[in-house]
Design brief:
Layout (H helix, E strand, L loop, with lengths): L1 H8 L7 E4 L6 H13 L7 E5 L9 E5 L3 H23 L3 H31 L2 E6 L2 E8 L2 E2 L2 H6 L2 H58 L4 H13 L5 H4 L13 H11 L5 E4 L9 E3 L5 H5 L1 E2 L2 E3 L2 E3 L5 E2 L2 H4 L4 E5 H6 L3 H11 L1 E2 L4 H4 L13 E2 L3 E6 L1 H10 L1 H6 L2 E4 L3 E3 L2 H18 L6 H15 L4 E3 L2 H17 L7 H15 L1 H11 L10 E2 L2 E9 L4 E14 L3 E4 H4 L5 H18 L7 E7 L12 H13 L3 E2 L2 E3 L2 E2 L5 E2 L4 H15 L6 E5 L10 H8 L4 E5 L2 H9 L17 H20 L31
Parallel strand pairs: 1-16, 1-17, 8-13, 13-16, 21-26, 23-24, 26-29, 29-30
Antiparallel strand pairs: 2-3, 2-7, 4-5, 5-6, 9-12, 10-11, 14-15, 18-19, 20-25, 21-22, 22-24, 27-28
Helix pairs in contact: 3-6, 4-6, 6-7, 17-19, 18-20, 19-20, 23-24, 24-27, 24-28
């Protein structure tokens, strides 16, 4: 919570948040709840709209307006276009406009007639007549005041024909000059009419634009855009005068003309890409499918008469647009899973702007014509939610990620078991009840859920924060209470929900216990054996985990200090298990090989184990079995052992101790509890015990035992009933103690080895087989420790 408060409060670039923690710890829901409290206190960001760019058609402009004004502007522009059609059409139907057109036509005719008359006089002076035809003005030669035919011309003398040709050329030249003057006059007339039309159109739409300018006077960019609209409409009057009878204009002659006219007027519309109408405070956007287009937006296309076209109205905003000015929550794994989405997110945060670009245009072999919308300035806090491993990978491998996500929000899988946390649990249960419409819980049921949360963490001082599992347990407990027609959910309903869930997932556990009960998997729980002891491991199956015993055996013989683990030799031992075995070797050498060499060959193994063995929780078990084999003192088979050991014989904590104790208890219960059965655990694991009521009752009733030990000496005394033995000042141990028996056995082996190695002449020598000792590569280091 402190990290979230810091990350949200700091306003410097790059301080986005990464919420990390185990799945089910309420990362996303907690982030949303926290941001909702913060967002309502922040100002509401404005709307974002795209409009036509009159200077560069392929680069639409982006404008921002106060929240809720984007939708109003879009409606105002629709109304403006409709009213502009009506006003322009009406303006061109008035008597004033008709009179002005008539005056311009009269003026044009008055200027046109003198030119024609002058041309006629010039032609007559050259004995030609001017005649207007569909192909233009032509000049016909005259003879004695009458038009001549080509035959008459051919009968003329040569000199007269040459004179006629000369005069004809002069007339044609004058006709061309006059035609150019007439064309210029016609263009001037057309321009005068067009100017009149533009003037009438401006006069018609100016009141409409004036009202919009006053309404949006605070948005200078929008006012400038309205001015540009006022300049553009008079140049596209046919789009407003041919929009169908409903507008009072001339009906389009074809659907194509109507569609084209409509498309031309679309340039004056507004495309709202972010609408914050009704939003209180800053937006909180949760994008559950963060594809490239869903993040940064896209440019869509529409089919028009067999062609795919687009314009600024086809621009669609993405999650970054909607979260602008607020917060965006994303699952980091989902972003990485979608191609190009991660790069687009990092680019937007780095540049501080969102640029909409279609991927097909970026990666096309040939450039294509499309839109390049103006980028939207980005000001948002992004919260990524992911696992700790994913955070570490991104932090190591992506330099941009380190620059942009500087606030790590680390959700712990546990909290301290305090009154405050219990109250929070009760509040969370109440929230689940309200959201799902479940039965209410009495205080005993709430307490039972709290205890179960402690069992999930294997701790008497911690509670699990796997809120998803808590919500599931609340739902299932309410179901079983309903099945029993309870008005409230009771503790027994919660216990049944726990038991039923375990039963649904415990098929593998049941099959293994059946194999143990029928003797297929040999686990002894009565009597005593030399060099054999029950170890404990945890089997994890995803939705279910349980403890199971397995036999660990050791054999010893005369040798040269070689300790072998069959799992290690057959590559069935994991690196952490191999490390634990080597620690056992170190303890043996450090404790017993100070005066005599280790002339022993020992072999240890997990009997009937055919899968990889990992973890060091059985290292104390292996050491007890080895000491039993060396001392030739039997170990109690009704006792199982767990715990790791260091080279000085101290027993260290291991994981899954609750499951291990309960796993051995179930085996003993199936065979009958005798009162002398139990488990030896590290003393450091006592705070981690959260045993079921059945096991607690058996221990309190003297039917089952749990011993907590700090070192190997305490454990071997429990397992053998003999004293371990303290070292005397001379290095020896007390008579009859375990250490004395082990030391005597090793001394005997050393003497035998020396006797076998001594040649007849008394000179010490070694056999060929003993000259080399096998050197085995050590196991690779592994950072994490597994239970099994």
């Amino acid at each position: 919570m402190e990290a979230m408060r810091f990350g949200v409060a700091i306003d410097s670039p790059g301080y986005n948040l990464f919420a990390t923690g185990l799945s089910g710890t309420g990362r996303a829901s907690t982030v949303r709840a926290f941001l909702q409290e913060i967002a309502v206190l922040r100002p509401t960001p404005g709307d974002w709209v795209h409009v036509h760019n009159f200077e560069q058609v392929d680069r639409p402009r982006v404008l921002t307006l106060p929240a809720g004004r984007g939708r109003v502007l879009a409606a105002d522009m629709e109304n403006f276009i409709r009213q502009a059609r009506q006003q322009i059409t009406h303006a061109f139907e008035t008597e004033r406009y008709t009179e002005r057109r008539r005056q311009l036509a009269t003026e044009l005719a008055q200027r046109h007639e003198p030119m024609i008359e002058e041309l006629g006089r010039f032609a007559r002076e050259h004995n030609f007549a001017i005649e207007a035809t569909p192909n233009g003005i032509i000049a016909a030669p005259l003879h004695e005041g009458r038009p001549t035919t080509p035959a008459d011309v051919e009968r003329l003398p040569e000199s007269e024909r040459q004179d006629l040709n000369r005069r004809g050329t002069e007339v044609q030249t004058q006709i061309a000059i006059t035609f150019r003057r007439l064309s210029q006059l016609e263009r001037e007339g057309i321009e005068q009419v067009a100017g009149l039309d533009r003037e009438i159109a401006r006069f018609a739409i100016e009141p409409l634009l004036h009202g919009l300018r006053e309404k949006y006077a605070q948005q200078e960019d929008l006012v400038a855009h309205l001015d540009r609209i006022g300049e553009d409409i008079p140049n596209h009057l046919p789009d407003f005068r041919q929009m169908g009878p409903e507008s009072g204009g001339i009906e389009a002659t074809s659907p194509l003309e109507a569609a084209l006219a409509s498309d031309h007027t679309n340039r004056y519309r507004v495309n709202v890409i972010v609408d914050n109408t009704g939003l209180e405070g800053a937006p909180i956007t949760v994008e559950t499918n963060p594809t490239y287009y869903n993040l940064v937006g896209r440019i869509e296309y529409r089919a028009t008469f067999g062609t795919m076209v687009t314009d600024f109205r086809q621009i669609k905003g993405g999650a970054l647009h909607r979260a602008n000015g607020g917060f965006l929550i994303l699952e980091a794994a989902d972003v990485l899973r979608n191609p190009f989405a991660w790069e687009a997110l990092m680019r937007a945060l780095s540049t501080g702007q969102v640029r909409i670009e279609n991927l097909g245009e970026q990666y096309s072999a040939l450039p294509t014509a499309s839109l390049s919308p103006a980028p939207v300035p980005l000001r948002t806090k992004v919260v990524l939610v992911g696992t700790p491993m994913l955070y570490q990978l991104l932090y190591r491998l992506d330099e941009v990620f380190r620059e942009l996500f500087k606030v790590k929000v680390d959700f712990s899988p546990e909290v301290e078991w305090t009154e405050q946390s219990v109250s929070a649990y009760a509040a969370f249960i109440s929230r689940c009840i309200g959201e799902k419409g479940l039965k209410h819980f009495d205080r005993g049921a709430v307490a039972r859920i709290v205890e179960e949360a402690a069992r999930w963490r294997d701790s008497q001082r911690k509670l699990s924060t796997r809120l998803r599992d808590v919500a599931d347990l609340v739902t299932e407990a309410s179901f079983w209470a309903d099945q029993q027609s309870h008005l409230l959910v009771l503790a027994e309903d919660v216990s049944r929900a726990v038991a039923e869930k375990e039963r649904r997932s415990s098929l593998t556990e049941e099959r293994l216990r059946e194999l143990i009960d029928e003797g297929t998997i040999r686990v002894e729980t009565v009597g005593s054996r030399i060099g054999q002891l029950n170890g404990l491991s945890v089997v994890e199956l995803g939705d279910h985990h349980f403890g199971i015993p397995s036999r660990v055996s050791a054999t010893v013989a005369l040798g040269r200090g070689t300790l072998e683990s069959i799992e290690r030799e057959t590559e069935l031992g994991g690196p952490i298990h191999n490390k634990g075995f080597l620690i056992v070797s170190g303890y043996l050498a450090g404790t017993y090989a100070q005066q005599w060499p280790l002339a022993v060959r020992a072999t240890l193994t997990f009997e009937q184990s055919y899968d990889e063995v990992e973890g060091d929780s059985a290292s104390s078990t292996e050491l007890y079995a080895l000491l039993s084999a060396l001392a030739e003192v039997p170990l109690k088979q009704q006792i199982a052992v767990t715990g790791s050991v260091d080279q000085h014989g101290n027993v260290q904590a291991v994981g899954g101790v609750t499951d291990k104790v309960e796993g051995f208890f179930k085996v003993c219960k199936a065979r009958g509890l005798s009162g002398d059965q139990g488990v030896v655990i590290p003393a450091a694991n006592v705070p981690h015990l959260m045993l079921s009521d059945e096991v607690v009752d058996a221990v309190c009733g003297g039917k089952f035992n749990i011993w907590a030990v700090n070192n190997v000496d305490q454990g071997i005394e429990i397992l053998t009933g003999r004293a371990a033995g303290d070292r005397n000042p001379d290095g020896s141990y007390a008579d009859g103690s375990i250490h004395r028996l082990v030391a005597q056995k090793l001394q005997t082996y050393a003497k035998l080895q020396a006797a076998f190695a001594r040649p007849p002449d008394g000179t010490p020598s070694l056999s060929h087989e003993e000259t080399q000792e096998q050197v085995r590569p050590g196991p690779k280091r592994q950072l994490n420790e597994s239970r099994h």
